[in-house]
Amino acid sequence: MDKHLGTTITYNEQELVSLLRDRDNRAFAYLYDNYSGALYGIILQILDNTELSNDVLQEVFINIWRKIESYDPSKGRLYTWMLNIARNASIDTLRSKSFQNSQKNQSFPENVDGLSVGVSQPNIDNIGLKKTLEKLKGEQRVLIDLAYFKGYTHEEIADIEGIPLGTVKTRIRTALQQLRNILK
Amino acid sequence: MNTQEYISSGIVESYVLGLVNDQERAEFERMCAAHSEVRAAREAFEISLERETLANAVAPPKHLRSKILGEIEIEKENNRDSFINRKGVTDNQEEIEKMPVIKMSRWGRYIAAASIVLLVASTALNFYFFNQYKSVTAKYEDVVAQNAAYAQNEKDYQNTINKLSNPAMAIIKMAGDSVPSSPSPSSMATVYWDTRTKDVFLLINNMPEVSAEMQYQLWAIVDGVPVDAGVFDVAKGIVTMKNIPRAQAFAITLEKRGGSPTPQGKMYVLGKV
After folding, report:
1. Core-most of B7, B88, B103, B229, by most CB within 10 Å?
2. Are the CB atoms for A54 and B61 separated by under 8 Å?
3. d(Cα A94, Cα A100) in Å, to the nearest integer?
4. Which domain holds residue B16?
5. Do A8 and A92 lie in a common domain?
6. Model ipTM value
């Protein structure tokens, strides 16, 4: 940002964490400028709803600010911690009443039904991690989608798909090994 | 299972993506602490995941940034106040309990009385100077804020020009005569849609004036479903609308002021992407 004004600052992760713990606004703005897009991408992929994604992004950054004390660098990188906050908040919203209601209200208005702009449900399967997942085998992709993007536990997935819990676990693990190779 | 088998079992990815149960989490954290190879594998996957999601970042709507940074500022102020209050209360209580009774000489009493008078006078002066200081500070802050507002306007303007001239900008003309039942077939408006950042700007070429209780609303048509892209008044220049990740068409309807969650009013103009 503002490269022409010469105000570009970069922090390494350690500096960033310690500034955030000191409640440094500039470090927080830096965090927002550098990572809000990536987190917003994931939130949009889970919720597929701009309005709610905006609310969730706001909630996520406020939680990052409030809970930075509880971030433990020995357990992973700062970004991983933030990504998990974003995913958890999105899945909580996905399962909330208000989300279920908002989905019902997405009606098809009379004024636009003459348009030939496609009639399928809105989906954003062609962006981001979801696109990466396209490279997985069909059954593996479904399981990762249920586990990561819909937030179902392995037990719930076993119920939904009607397959044994052990098989769910093995398939998800295999899919994740593939995912690592794809991302490399 | 040896360390290498453990690393390639998928546990690293499950842990990083948050797909493990409590028992697996505890075990993985133990393994990380004990084996640097496990930790290195975790970091490597974290970095590739970070790279992947950063490469697929979607810019959030502009207004969210100031909203979120503003929230943080308020939160910071509140925490500071509650900390001071808590501290003040406990200190006073202790002082009251510990206070001894002292007998004073005659001179001592005069000196004590004089010092109280001085204290009162100095407090009054402090109060006066503090008020002066406050009013000057407030004026100064006004000037700084004004200056920042001008700078922001200038920057916004420059940004708009840069954005509109950028080669990734899609231009979608929305015309009244594309809508069979448009109340105003000669109406026209243009959407400038940045295909890279997904920012949406609107130029109003010709739209009829409407009454104060009504407002136009822009819709992005995504797979046949209208998605709210914001409301606007008929004004000159370019209006920044909501960020739209994907759409096949844009349309404008007339709605009650403040807009509707789904289109209720008549469609004025329409343009396909």
Report:
1. B229
2. yes
3. 7
4. 3-55
5. yes
6. 0.81
